[in-house]
Amino acid sequence: MSEKTYNVLFLCTGNSARSIMAECILGRHGTARFRAFSAGSHPKGSLHPESVELLQRLNHDTSGLRSKSWDEFAAAGAPDLDFVFTVCDNAAGEICPAWPGQPMTAHWGVPDPAAVLEQGAERGLKIADIYRMLNNRISIFCALPIRSLDTLSLQKRLDDIGKSRD
Predict the structure, then answer these.
(1) H or E element at residue 139
(2) Catalytic sites, residue numbers
(3) E-assigned strands of 32-163?
(4) pLDDT tens digits, residue range 85-128?
(5) CB 23, CB 8: distance < 8 Å
(6) How many CB atoms lie within 10 A of CB 47?
(7) Rounded Cα–Cα distance for residues 45 and 55 (Å)
(8) For residues 132 and 130, what is the distance between their CA atoms, to the nearest angstrom?
(9) What is the topology classification, in CATH, of domain 6-159?
(10) 84 to each of 11, 41, 81, how far by Cα in Å?
(11) Considering Cα of 111, then 128, then 71, then 69, what sign does the dihedral take?
(12) Domain coordinates of the chain in residue numbers?
């Protein structure tokens, strides 16, 4: 029996950096087990250039990435979502649409790469650290025995991932 493929949506306000990074990371780690998506409550319409450069340096495929609205995932014909994770504080506090499939949700907030004030190498290190935080959380998520956990246990684990000290 083949394992179910879970649809995972990462949300942020602008869908230009954090949620895009998370989509790429899960796309790599999750392979056949997960399908990763990202969206924003108020998408910027463009991607954060330094975040995309980092993803490319780490050999992530960035060719199909775009900043898009979360409305695409609440519309008819959208994939049924199994998990929705907010990765920034603004999206966590907003009223989300009703998602098809009644997914499990958790908040995994990390700093915004676009808000990094440092310049030069220090700026690059801060953005790389944000990537590392997301990578750690997504790696833990990918290792969960999802099918063997009851709903309450799984929800606690998802919440704990967001509280982890990266």
Answers:
(1) helix 120-143
(2) 12, 88, 96
(3) 34-40, 83-86, 104-107
(4) 999 865 555 566 767 778 999 999 999 898 888 888 888 899 99
(5) no
(6) 19
(7) 18
(8) 5
(9) Rossmann fold (3.40.50)
(10) 7, 13, 7
(11) positive
(12) 6-159
